[in-house]
From TrEMBL:
PANTHER family hit by this protein: HYDROLASE, PUTATIVE (AFU_ORTHOLOGUE AFUA_2G14860)-RELATED (PTHR43798:SF33), MONOACYLGLYCEROL LIPASE (PTHR43798)
A single GO molecular function term of this UniProt record: hydrolase activity
A Pfam family: Hydrolase_4
The entry's keywords: Hydrolase
Ranges where the Serine aminopeptidase S33 domain occurs: 68-162
Species of origin: Pseudomonas zhanjiangensis
The name this protein goes by in its record: Alpha/beta fold hydrolase
SUPFAM superfamilies: alpha/beta-Hydrolases
Domain named Peptidase S33 tripeptidyl aminopeptidase-like C-terminal: residues: 210-266
Amino acid sequence: MNGMNWVRGFNATVGWVAPQAVASRLRAEFMTPRVAAPRDWELPLLAQAERVTLRFGLSALRWGSGPVVLLMHGWEGRPTQFAVLIKALVGAGYAVVALDGPAHGRSPGREANVVQFAHALLEAASELPPLKAVIGHSMGGASALLATQLGLRAEALVSIAAPSRILTVLRGFARHMGLPAQARAHFVRLIEEKAGMPAGRLDVARYRLDLPGLIVHAADDPQVPYSEAEAMHEAWFDSRLLRLEAGGHHRVLADPRLHQAVLELLAELPAQAPSRALAS
């Protein structure tokens, strides 16, 4: 029996006897990100960035000048995972601000969730000039979509490899970890209590999305099924869907077709009036 099978077997057995205890332990595990150092190919761009500290200690990196594009990485991700896209945006005349999500990088916290990521985007936007676009990968994409329902304003939004429904993610994780039904229900309830929002509300089908958007997803994504992108596209009237046959969950960020589609979307938006400089 390998390690993962042992863990599932343990959770399945103990989950019948003490469902709340097992659910509580997995809730903490689910919401505590692991630290991942930047890869070598990310380091040159990291060296070129300016580190900015925003409200409540939220940390960000910025590059370039011009209309502002705000980026949010995914779970256990980093701003520099967008390296190739950042270079394309700066080269096209945009300023890029990429956040360290809560409990990630140099931003404060030990635990995080999609609602906290959404509030981080709102906090950053309140200190920046009007946003040309917000771009999010994976949970960063889900949080950007949620943030628009909480008051975030941008001219456009790009979702990359993001789920359309958070409840599906929670249930999938609980099943993957071997939790029996009662423990799964406790797990979801504990997540909702920590996030301060019912998981059922975190569903793009329930959102009012009144801005242009781009949805990018690889058909071979092993973490978030491509069907999530289709569901998102169906619910989001003013969106275009870019299907990539290959790219997995992370390699998609370096795909030149993604960069081209983002730049085309931004080029179609009305020109912005000159705005105040980025805060330091």
